[in-house]
Write a structure and sequence with these properties.
eight-stranded mixed β-sheet, alpha/beta, globular, 10 strands, single chain, 10 helices, Rossmann fold
Length: 290
């Protein structure tokens, strides 16, 4: 059994429960989304259709609608509770700002319920870390994009929550955190999926807390529960908790406990197909770091 396989039913339940209070806790998620939106200022594209894959409570969707008011946006999320919360926000937003037509779809990024060649932009902010098969996910996104369409995304890299991961080391034999893909591996996945001109870069963003409970509480509020197959099935015991706190305290700096996130950004294009004399497709473009 793959101990890092994500249980999608557990994941869906966690995000459904988190949906009502998600926006109040999603400080990092909004910041990353804003930084992605700034990157669109340098891209000349006026998409008629945008897929927001992993749209959550719709904060990013609303920003895209304001930026592209003539665009039809498909908001896709695995948790129906997230989409319902997004719908409750969209009414007042549309009254104030007007904006793009929006359609909601409850589904999984790994198996998109969309037709091939149906959108000009696929956008995904901090959702791909919940995918079990990232190469297949990129293949799906390539499928639904039209030729010359743009994929823009962010996700978490291996150093994410490194302090918490180190603190859990030796506490017990269970998984407590997801496993995250390396930026260079993601670039290779994009190429193999058929994308051209992939550009990848990353940055570290660190949040600080007074204690370990604050770190775990914030993760719970945004629905970021441990949904891996190798997770423990019960509550953490008193001795394990004491070990976790003691281990994490070694990371305290300037009176605060850090929670580091490695944020990976990427974008790539779906190129015109190249074929050999017998009709076989040829797509091979090395990715570059920004």
């Amino acid at each position: 059994m793959n101990d890092f396989l994500i249980d999608k039913r557990r994941l869906r339940r966690a995000f459904n429960r988190a949906a009502p209070d998600y926006d109040a806790a999603a400080v990092l998620q909004r910041e990353v989304c804003m930084r992605m939106l700034e990157r669109l200022d340098y891209i000349k594209l006026q998409p008629a259709h945008i897929l927001d894959a992993g749209s959550g409570t719709g904060w990013g969707t609303r920003q895209l609608a304001e930026k592209y008011p003539a665009t039809r946006i498909i908001s896709l999320d695995i948790a129906i509770g997230m989409l319902q919360t997004a719908r409750s926000h969209s009414g007042w937003w549309r009254k104030l700002f007007g904006g793009a037509q929006q359609m909601q779809v409850c589904g999984d990024i790994e198996t998109l319920p969309l037709a091939a060649n149906s959108v000009e932009m696929a956008w995904s902010s901090l959702a791909m870390q919940w995918c079990n098969d990232l190469p297949a996910t990129f293949t799906e996104l390539h499928r639904v994009l039209k030729t010359d369409g743009l994929l823009m995304f962010s996700t978490f890299g291996p150093d994410t929550l490194k302090e918490l991961r180190q603190a859990f080391s030796g506490v017990d034999r269970h998984n407590h955190l997801n496993r995250f893909a390396d930026m260079h591996d993601i670039g290779d996945m994009l190429v193999h999926a058929g994308f051209a001109e992939p550009v990848m870069d990353m940055e570290y963003i660190t949040l600080t807390y007074d204690d370990v409970r604050g770190v775990l509480y914030d993760l719970k509020r945004i629905g970021a529960h441990n949904a891996t197959a190798g997770r423990g099935q019960g509550l953490m015991g008193k001795n394990a908790w004491s070990s976790l706190v003691e281990n994490y305290e070694r990371s305290r700096r300037d009176g605060k406990l850090p929670a580091t996130y490695e944020v990976i950004y990427g974008h790539a294009w779906k190129p015109q197909p190249r074929v050999t004399g017998d009709g076989a497709a040829i797509i091979k473009t090395p990715f570059k770091l920004k």
